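User: Working on a comparison across species. This one is Class I SAM-dependent methyltransferase from Fulvivirga sediminis. Can you predict its structure so I can line it up against the others?
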Amino acid sequence: MDKQLTKEQIEELEKQLSCPSGEMGTEVGKNMNESNIGMTLNTIEFLELQNGHQVLELGHGNCGHLDEVLNAGKYMKYFGLEISETMMHEAKNNNQNQEAEFNLYDGINIPFPDNSFNRTFSVNTIYFWANREKLMQEIERTLKPGGICILTYANKDFMKNLPFVGEKFRLYDPKDLEELVSITDLQMIQTLQKEEQVKSKAGEPVLRTYSMTKLRKP
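Assistant: Here's the predicted structure for Class I SAM-dependent methyltransferase from Fulvivirga sediminis:
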C-alpha cells in the first residue's frame, strides 16, 4: 500500500478492517492474513488443541490458517463465523473439502446450541464488537464446561497511535478485558504478552505489542 494515505483512504481502510467488502475487502483480507499470521499461529498454539475438539473462530477472515487448526489433532472440526460476506466466501473458496463450516452471523448472537465447543478463539476482532457484553455471554454459553477461549488483541498503547484507528475501534489492555469478562462466569487463566515486527496497514515497519488472554468456562 501507498505509505502516504489520504484522510479518505484512512477512513475507508478503517471501515474495511471492521467488515471487509468487495474487491478492496478481498485485498484487505489477504493483507490481514499476512500481517496477523504470527498472532494467529501463537493463538492456535495457546489453545492446546486435542483430538476430536470442536473449534469455533469468530472473525476468521480468509482463513488462510485453517490447516494449522485441523492438523493440531485427529478428528478435528472447525466452525467459522463472520460478519463479512466477502470474507466468508473467501474462506470457503480457500478451504474446500476441509472439515470446516463457514457461516455469517450478526456479530452478537452465536447461532449454536449451549455447550457446543471445546475451544473458541478470535484474533483482532474485539475492537469491533457491536455488543461486547452480549457476545462475551454468547461465548460463555456455547463453550463446553472446561472449554477454553483465547482472545488476542493488539495492546491499547500500540493501537492508539496508528493513523487508521478511529471511532470504529474500541481499544483494550488486559485490565479492560478483565472488566468485560467479569460480567460472565468465565475465568481468566492467563495473559501472555508478545511483540513482533510487522508492516503497518500503511506499509510502515512497526513493533506490534499484543496480548493473548486465555479464558476457561467452569
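For your comparison, note: The radius of gyration is 16 Å.

User: Helpful, thanks.
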